[in-house]
Amino acid sequence: MSTFPTSDSSTPIVVVEADPSVRSRLSMQLGERAIALESLDGVEDRFTSPFLLVLGPSCALVPGVTGAEGMLARRSDIGAILIAENLSTEVFQRAMRSGVRDVLGAPVDTGQLNEAVRRVSASLVTSSPNGSVGSVAATVPEDDTSEQGRVITVFSTKGGAGKSVLATNLGVILAQRSEGTVALVDADLQFGDIAVMLKLAPQHTIVDAVGSFDRLDVGFLESLLATHQPSGLKVLPAPLEPAFADQIGAEQMNAIIRLLRTFCTYVVVDTPAYFNDVVLGLIEESDDVLLVAGMDIPNIKNVKIGLQTLRLLNTPMNKIHLILNRANSKVKLEVSEVERTLQVKADALIPSDIVVPQSVNKGTPVVIDAPRSSIAKSLEQLADRFAPRVDAKAKKKR
Ligand SMILES: Nc1ncnc2c1ncn2[C@@H]1O[C@H](COP(=O)(O)OP(=O)(O)OP(=O)(O)O)[C@@H](O)[C@H]1O
Ligand SMILES: [Mg+2]
Fold first, then answer.
1. What is the Å distance from ligand 1's center to 119 Cα?
2. Residue 395 CB: number of other CB atoms within 10 A?
């Protein structure tokens, strides 16, 4: 079996696995940078600068999942990947929550392993070395069963699929239709571009919410939201620099969402194009997940993998809605073919239209910029699932 070249970075890769044959196979798959160890003993003291930690299947048997949680909580410069024999929801979630950045099923394929190493390496570069996640404490009313806003997360396992375009336009339409507050949260923490797409110059970002987590309440959170004047949509922007992304963990994100849903009618959430603990937490917390797929084979392949992962995590399939973007493209791929491959019926078809990039470049959502376009109409139709249309006069509020 050939070994794949890993990224050019000189970051060491520490492989921890009790079974000698599994250990040597993993280090062969990872190439020259791999340092194979039988256990985690002494690892933290031996490697004082950033490193990647590949935890073999024997580590997934340890109570608390990996035995590395303490070390991962102390050191944000360790990028951990867990390979688990039994990729159950419980293992997956506990691993993510204990600071592991990716979980792969055993036996792992070389390409998949090195792809995870590359992704985790990239996130290590953008993390601050001491940016440890603080303890969770916000004053969120627990399990308040009174009227709660609906949380709609827009997700895709493919970059550039159209998540942010969809999230901004849906947020704007819901804000125009709704009497109550509608919030849009940019949970693409490293490269979020909601503020740019809405031409906002935010005073505050989600980092401020997490920075003052102990005193986070409705009033304080409201004061952090930027207003998109044309629609009244309230926006919680992503950090201004990717390095701050690590300060926001899944528990903080979900606490913010739970607080938002206490005073918002709808909370729309935009996400990055991969699973991490923040995204998993959001999917769990959401009432609806709009899974966006573009109309090409790499898109469909990645979305299929995304769907499989969601099934594996026992995500209720009735809250997942498949949205096919650029669905009219003459790309020799039929909607029915895509639906058959994904084994899911599309809930909405959004056409491809040049007015989209034009509106993105203007910082004006297409539903405002070109309301008569076919894409604006299809976005309005998508919003019908969540909120009834109102007549023009009723839109005037605030
Ligand atoms: N239906 C469409 N028709 C034409 N262009 C589109 C359409 N949807 C999205 N685009 C274009 O594709 C680009 C990528 O869209 P968008 O930023 O929403 O994707 P994303 O999934 O959020 O990407 P990322 O994973 O990088 O966050 C946008 O700049 C937009 O111009
Ligand atoms: Mg985006």
1. 21
2. 14
Cα 240 to ligand 2 centroid, rounded to whole Å = 14
Domains along the sequence of the chain with CATH: 13-125 (3.40.50.2300), 150-395 (3.40.50.300)
Rounded to the nearest angstrom, the distance between the alpha carbon of 109 and the centre of ligand 1 is 31
Top mean pLDDT of 30-44, 90-104, 280-294 is at 280-294
* Atom 29 of ligand 1, nearest CA residue: 357
163 lines ligand 1 (CB under 6 A): yes
Q: How far apart are CA 336 and CA 359, in angstroms?
A: 30
Whether residue 360 has its Cβ less than 6 Å from ligand 1: yes
**What are 162-195's pLDDT values in tens digits?**
999 999 999 999 999 999 999 999 999 999 999 9
Ligand 1 pocket test target in 158, 360, 375, 377 with most atoms within 8 Å of CB: 360
- Give the ligand with the smallest distance to the CA of 193: 2
Any idea which of 71-80, 200-209, 269-278 has the lowest mean pLDDT? 71-80
Q: Band of the pLDDT at 127, cuts 50, 70, 90?
A: very low
3-state helix, strand, coil in the chain (%, to 5): 40, 15, 40
DSSP β-bridge partners for residue 185: 236, 269
Instruction: Please state the φ and ψ torsions of residue 367, each to the nearest 5 degrees.
Output: -70, -20
Q: Name residues whose C-beta falls within 8 Å of residue 226's C-beta, 6 or more positions apart in sequence.
A: 195, 200, 202, 203, 204, 234, 235, 236, 237
Q: How close is the Cα of 162 to the center of ligand 2, in Å?
A: 7
CA quadruple 342, 348, 352, 357: dihedral sign: negative
